[in-house]
Fold:
Amino acid sequence: MRPGRGEAAFKLAAVGLLSLLVAFTAVPLLVLVARAASAAGELGLWSLWSSPATLQALRGTLVTSTGAAAMSFVLGLPLAVLLERTDLPHRHALRAAFTLPTAIPPFIWGMGWVALANPRAGLLNRALGAGTVDIYSGFGVAFVLGAAGLPLVMLPAAAVLARLDPSHAEAARDFGAGPVRTHLAVPVRLALPAAASGAALVFLFAAAAFGVPYLLGVTATPPTPTLTTRIYAEMLMGPAGLWNAAAYSLLLLAMAVVVLLLSRLLGRSGRTALLSGKGLKQRALQLGPLRTPLSAAVIALALVLVVAPLLAVALASLTTPAGDLTVSHWGRVLADPRTLSATVNSVALSLAAAAAVTTLGLVLSMIRRRSAALGHAAELLAAWPYAVPGTVLAIALLAAFSRDLRFVFFDSFALVLALANTLWLLLLAWVAKHLAFGTRNAAEGLARVDPSLAEAARVSGAGPLRAFVDAVVPQLKGPLAAAFTLTFLTCATELTLAVLLVPPGRDVLGTLLFELQSYADPASAAVIACAFVLFVLAVLGTRAALVARRVDA
Amino acid sequence: MVSLEQVHKSYGETPVVKGLSLEVARGEMIALLGPSGCGKTTTLRIIAGLEHADAGRVHIDGALVTGQPPEARGLGMVFQSYAIWPHKTVAENVEYPLKLKGVAGREALVRQALGWVRLDALAQRMPHALSGGQLQRVALARALVASPKVLLLDEPLSNLDAALREDLRAEIAALRARLGTTMIYVTHDQNEALALADRVAVMNHGVIEQLAPPRELYESPKTPFVAAFVGGANVLEGRLDGADFVCGDRRLVLPADLERPAAARHLVIRPEALTVGDGPNELGVVASLFLGHSTEVRFDVAGHLMRALAPAHVRPKPGENVRVRIDRAQLFS
Ligand SMILES: Nc1ncnc2c1ncn2[C@@H]1O[C@H](COP(=O)(O)OP(=O)(O)OP(=O)(O)O)[C@@H](O)[C@H]1O
Ligand SMILES: [Mg+2]
Structure:
């Protein structure tokens, strides 16, 4: 065998796989752009974009997303400082509580707030008098999304604060700065870029959100439509609406690109110079007399933002409209054959997506290791669907696969790709969307594996693939399991892609939840939401326990 | 058993191995000795097939293997970082090469190999519960279990502490006496190379400067580099002027019987070939270090350091001028 031959076979296989990925992820986006442009030919894309309805939706998106970003920034940065740099009590538990919002779909937080602050029947309004707080508004959308996005600001800022080079604080002290300046002003200034970059991501997360604006904005008086809810409305109008939806999607996409670049820029500016060293354990700032009031305030915040909405959902699943306790909702939902079929579909599709994401992640990171150029392509390919708003991804896939595609090979053997109106399209979307989980975890894991492990297997007589499977893959169990769990969890509780892509007459849990909450039966929706939350908590708890056991061992 | 012909290898623009040729006889143990970065590991990896040469040919056991992948070469290899698979037990690690070959009666062979390295008792242990020395013994057993044509070792002892290093060195020598395996042993430690190998190849900047049995290498180095690297000799640059060697503004009186080629540019003197306290040269002392059994005296020769080994009772002070005689030396062009 010539040395080049194995390499050539590898390259061929890699290029094949990447082309397949391009076909299923990048091409739909191009189709979206092309279709939107051609549809615009008749009406004029510009006239569509500048119509009052569009401008109203655009304003809705901008206002709610800016509000959400501002809220998460204003709360997230101080929380990061309090939890990371001070002697605040119960830091560990509080940290876990404030991290929870990312693990639970935003729609459920929205349901929680509906149960709390619905103007007529909300628990708060029952306690304080009808109409005191009204969650059905642009303000409500921003508030719920800001709370749900809080970890996106708090966690990166806390990470910076944890790794800060202590010499910065010491230098400040040497120059005669007081404890508040050394422990607060300096670190906060250094954590600012990470928090700002996180806030930009919250903006993106809020602009891409569909469930919460649909739940709280569309029925508000006056209604606050957003780009995503407009896209959904167009979608409901059938094939004709698809092209308007595509045109709206382009706007959203452009916004996403700009904000993402901005976030990267902010994040990078913060990385320079300040993260030297391993971060010696720092002395925490003694809060002194402020310790008790600050602690009470933070606990109250956690109760309001995290505990109350979840309890409200739980209560909604257990009470009659009159307010009496009942388990009849649970009985009804569990007995409904739709629940069973939706659960089976959700679990099966999520498992398939998780398996595909993990496998593809592993393969893509292998490609990355062996060929820098192909690896770069693979990285990009895996990263972009995660950054693109889910609604845009869904519309792109619908635009690309709305008709059956026929591929005829050698004039005789035809492959018909009929994805439209099947659950396969949802699976495809889930895999594309979460591919980054797989590649990121696999790449990080691979970077930590000593290459001589594989080389020892080669010299022992194993071919390249066998050596990889026998010597390297077993070392990646942890990161791959994490990617699998995360993908499974996210897909099983996913809503946006499901609502847009599941064909009529089929159900997954996300669509069932959405439908019950929006049209029919909020109490049953609360039951499913509770089941989601319990499921998420169980999985996270199991993982934490497993990790703790591994650390002990 | 192994032959390299004019092997070249570059990483990007940087040549790392430059036209290296080497013949290793069956059953022979060769050490590749040289400073860090001289291309030892790269050469070994080219033999293993883990790296492909840009030019040149590699034969193993008479067959041309250039371009063959490592799994087709039938070799054993011990890595500096042990490379023991952490998810397999000791026995499973050792069994792996046999499993790939589909050998029958593997259990007995594994037990035998573990016996060679005295690890019989630890067969069922997981690697994380082993010490560095034990891990490297597992690596030896794994590399030898399938009777490789050649055993390649890349600085196998460099991660171990001094005492363990001695033990394992003796064990490798004993294993070799017992099994007669052809071995290529990479190291930057001259003691290891001289103690273990039948012949030592001293490498510098991607070429072999000298390939010779240890004694010959030590007694008649072919280049100033070999003399300096293997014997720790002093190398002074200069030229002959009459019978003396001139280095900068210093004039050194050489032994009378020294052969003096006209083109000589390097004077090589071993530390033990200098007599301190008597002789025709007067040199300034920079430092004198008491080593127990002897004293190392450091002189300044026109801005270069020259080390001499003197008996322990000789203790010149820094700044003093001391008489020195060169008993033996070598001149190189
Ligand atoms: N994969 C690589 N890419 C680029 N340069 C490399 C690579 N591997 C080795 N080199 C360079 O080639 C030169 C020789 O490396 P090699 O590992 O063979 O040295 P060595 O003699 O084994 O040194 P050491 O004693 O430090 O292990 C070094 O300068 C090294 O930096
Ligand atoms: Mg080396």
